[in-house]
Amino acid sequence: MDSEKYQRVRNGAGFVAALDQSGGSTPAALHLYGIDKDAYSGPEEMFDLVHQVRTRIITSPSFDGERVMGAILFENTMNRQVEGSPTGDYLWNSKGIVPFLKIDQGLAPEQQGAQLMKPIPHLDDLLSRAVEKHMFGTKMRSVIKLPGDGVGSVVEQQFGLARQILVTGLVPIIEPEVDIRSPRKAEVEDQLKAAILAQLDKLGDD
Fold first, then answer.
1. Is the dihedral of CA 135, 79, 51, 56 positive or negative?
2. What is the DSSP code string of 11-59?
3. Which SS3 state, helix, strand or coil, does residue 2 take?
4. Confidence of residue 205 (pLDDT cuts 50, 70, 90)
5. What is the per-residue pLDDT across 95-123, written as a single tens digit (0 to 9) for each?
6. Calpha distance 138→25 (Å, rounded)
7. CB-based contacts of 136: which residues, under 8 Å, 6+ apart?
8. Looking at residue 109, what DSSP letter applies?
9. Distance of CA 154 to CAs 13, 101, 113, 167, 190, Å?
10. Transmembrane stretches, by residue range (predicted)?
11. Residue 23 binned pLDDT confidence (cut-offs 50, 70, 90)
12. Is the separation of the CB atoms in 90 and 77 below 8 Å?
């Protein structure tokens, strides 16, 4: 674990910027930016365009360490460069912004009022490359819509992957998101809190 980045995350101010649109959500993000589908042909051109968008955001003077503590990157963005430096290195060395990597591959179909993460193939390889690219941590999202057994399944999956990630020296952000439109949102939140605390109680002192 990078001690400087750790202190920045632990004691620093600012929000975490989400720059992690995947291939599935990128067309909509480009459309909102003003780039329609007829402006590119195929995934390669699409990813080139969205990286230009992200580069414009990242290099903006307003996107700095005083306002932004961390940035979550899509794998494709992690593998690219900004102004001649790997994206993660540019964020940290030029902006003082801690880089994280989105590792989930999207959501599985809803079961028991929740959506687990899809299986993550070649996770060990992805984590190894994240370390090589100087990522500080990871982010992974699942969704809970109703109380019930699905809450426990989501939390168990999140913490199971978190333990695997910690072994590599990366710091995992767990993201069991409660659907804001849930008709039983308060019940979900109470159950989620209890499940998270139960998992935390199982962890060691470190």
1. positive
2. H--SEEEEE---TTTHHHHHHHHT--GGG--SHHHHHHHHHHHHHHHHH
3. coil
4. low
5. 999 999 999 999 999 999 999 999 999 99
6. 19
7. 1, 2, 5, 6, 9, 70, 98, 99, 100, 170, 171
8. P
9. 29, 20, 10, 21, 14
10. none
11. low
12. no
Among 129, 8, 33, CA closest to 78 = 129
Residue found under tokens 């009022």: 113
- Cβ atoms of 111 and 137 within 8 Å: the answer is no
Alpha carbon dihedral 66, 72, 76, 78, in 10-degree steps, equals: 60
Instruction: Give the integer Cα–Cα distance in Å for 190 and 109.
Output: 23
**Token pair belonging to 17:** 């910027």
Structure tokens given for 118: 């899809």
The count of residues in the chain is: 206
Mean pLDDT of the chain: 93
Tell whether the model's pLDDT for residue 41 goes beyond 80. yes
Nearest alpha-carbon partner for 77 in 4, 130, 12: 130
Nearest to 178 by CA among 196, 203, 160, 200: 196
Q: Are 179 and 145 in contact (CB under 8 A)?
A: yes
Q: Identify whether the C-beta of residue 26 lies closer than 8 Å to the C-beta of residue 50.
A: yes
